[in-house]
Amino acid sequence: MPPNSRDTPTGVLFESDVETVDGGLSKDVTTLKTTDGSRLQLVWFNIVLFVILHSASLYGVWLLLAEATWTTFLLFIPAVVTTILGVSGGAHRLWAHRTFKANTPLKLIFLFLNTLAFQDAVYFWARDHRVHHKFTETDGDPYNSQRGWFFSHIGWLCCRKHPEVVERGKQIDLSDLESDPLVMFQKKYYLLLMPIICFVLPTALPMYLWGESLNVSFHVMALLRWSTSLNLIWLVNSSAHMFGMKPYDKNICPVDQGFLIACRVGEGYHNYHHVFPWDYKSAELGKYSQDVTTKFIDFFAYLGWAYDLKSVPLDLVRRRAERTGDGSHPVWGWGDKDQLKEDIGGTTITHQRKARHYPDTQNT
């Protein structure tokens, strides 16, 4: 039987965890991905709530298309994206991975959006996510993809945690979160703040601001918005660990997932993220880092509210991809046969030498 996460970490979490010069582990993690296959105790309360949520959300889809005002229809997608920012930019990139730092006003914005997303308090979300990276694809991983797509998508929330998840969660260092008074405030008052921010405000504001009906406001801007954001983020745990390419490390399960990349919300370049989880972009520079979450952070960095943004040098990315990638990375340098014409045309070349013009001597 292969060793499991009880003995050996299977992934990196911070820069201090790396064991090779290109940011990896020195062990063969392919032998460590496992599950004992034990049956976990179902939590029927959660199961019933998820059935009700998704049923009501389907009704919300009909209302969005048939009865909602144009204002609600046009603002629905921005509302979903804004909700996801609270997890992708806040709980994930800021607090779980410490990829950048934020001043107090920006932390308050992220905490508000994270509460709007209702995926548990930052403290617990970051703890589980750190365990996921440290012991990915083992029974110590809360959403272990070795148990199948459904489990890693939503099933893990429908049953009791595997004992090893609980054990590993107690061992993860959370001192940085515990020393953050804003994070601990949210943790303490989460059950009071969450219903107001996630359900009451999204229902009341459309009714007050543009005269939307109670029925549409509740089912579309509260329930459908919430369930849509949940499932998009859950796809990072499920599909982004199964269906896609592995340009940076072919030995791990996380992949660069095409659908999530196309959504441009963030986290689609999941193979990259598990290789370099301390990069604030969760992707390379250039066209790879054009998602909304990265732009959101960049905007506040411009204002000075976000700072100390960590980014992996392209040379390190190249060396890692050449050593462990599956060969699917499209472009490595100028003149590559797969380099897009728009990338060539949009490139600025400075300090060019002027072409020399010689007289035509053939006709003299």
UniProtKB/TrEMBL annotation:
The lineage of its organism: Eukaryota, Metazoa, Ecdysozoa, Arthropoda, Hexapoda. The keyword tRNA-binding does not apply. Belongs to the fatty acid desaturase type 1 family. It is a multi-pass membrane protein. GO terms for biological process: unsaturated fatty acid biosynthetic process. It is found in: Membrane. Keywords: Fatty acid biosynthesis, Fatty acid metabolism, Iron, Lipid biosynthesis, Lipid metabolism, Membrane, Metal-binding, Oxidoreductase, Transmembrane, Transmembrane helix. Pfam families: FA_desaturase. This is Desaturase. Its main location: membrane.
